[in-house]
Structure formats: structure tokens, C-alpha cells
Amino acid sequence: xxHEMVGNLQEGYHGQERDHFCSGPWCLAWGLVLETxxxxxxxxxxxxxxxxxxxxxxxxxxxxxxxxxAVLAKQxxxxxxxxxxxxxxxDEVVDATGIAGYANISQTRLFETETPLQILETWSEVIxxxxxxxxxxxxxxxxxxxxxxxxxxxxKLSVSGYxxxxxxxGDKGDQSAxxxxxxxxxMVYWTTIPDQxxxxxxxx
Length: 204
Fold this sequence. Notes:
By secondary structure, this protein is an alpha/beta fold.
């Protein structure tokens, strides 16, 4: 489960306009609110429901650190990860809350020319042993050198399958792209079609 916009979730988005949710999973989330009349849960409510049953990624886009600390103080932390593109921001949350760090090591505005391997080194220098996962956007970015360095640092890799993998599997039933990605050395996979990907894993 990935919770976007942590700070705003603490407020529950009560009374927000529908246009605020016009992309990705938020369209679904807002649609459920409109259909059922239920409000989007606060972060505290969502984490209380989940407990330690699955991995929860807190995507640090907009948040209040003191409010986040108060919410997380009441929750089990073993399945919570602070995710972001700025290592300084993630490090601040890791230090304040005691949860582990999850790095985006793809090229962003902060790292426009560096390779994923170079970005991983920067994240490791900032966060240290509290960095447990690092994410790349495409399987081609998982090189032998990146895998070796990640293993040395004790960091697992994750990769997105939103592109060719999900399109091939979802539209054509073609497993080949996902099978290649599953053999990449990554340990965590992002997908928009989890049920179909689970079938691939069970058959593998």
C-alpha cells in the first residue's frame, strides 16, 4: 500500500473538490467516497486498520513532521517506510520517527545527470544504515554494478512495472516482460495489475 501526500491525509481531505483527485489511484479513492458516502480515512485510521499486515510506503510530498510523529508513535513501525526523492527530507523523517528509509534513485530534478548507482551512494551517505530499499523506474537501470553495491550496503532494490510489463501482461496476457523484470534481482515490484502479477509469480 502506498499512501501519497502524507500531511494532507492526516486531515482526511474532508470537503475537498473532486478535481483535486484527478490522477491515478486518487480518482478511484474519490470515486469510492462519492459512491459510498464514506470519507477518505486519515493516515491514523488507515494505519490502525492495516496494522502490520502489509508494507506501507509513506510518500513524503507534503507533510507536517510533528503531526506525522504523533501518528506514527501509536503504530507498529516494522512495515513502514519513508519514501521520497530528497534524501535530506527522508533522513529528517527517519530520524524523527524511527521508521526506515526508501530512496528513489532514478534521475530527478535533484539528480539530473547522476546514474542510479551514484544517486544510491548519495542516499547512503545521508541516511546510512536506515536506508533499506531503493527504487528505479525501469528494469534496464538495474545493472550488475548497482546490484553489487546495493548488496554491499544492505539495500534491496525495487522497480516499476507500470510500462511495458503491465501493458503486455494486462492487454495481451504476455508474461515475458514481467518474467524478465522478476529475474532482475529486485525484491519489490510496483504494478497496476497486482492480481495478474501474482498469477505470474505463482506460475513461475
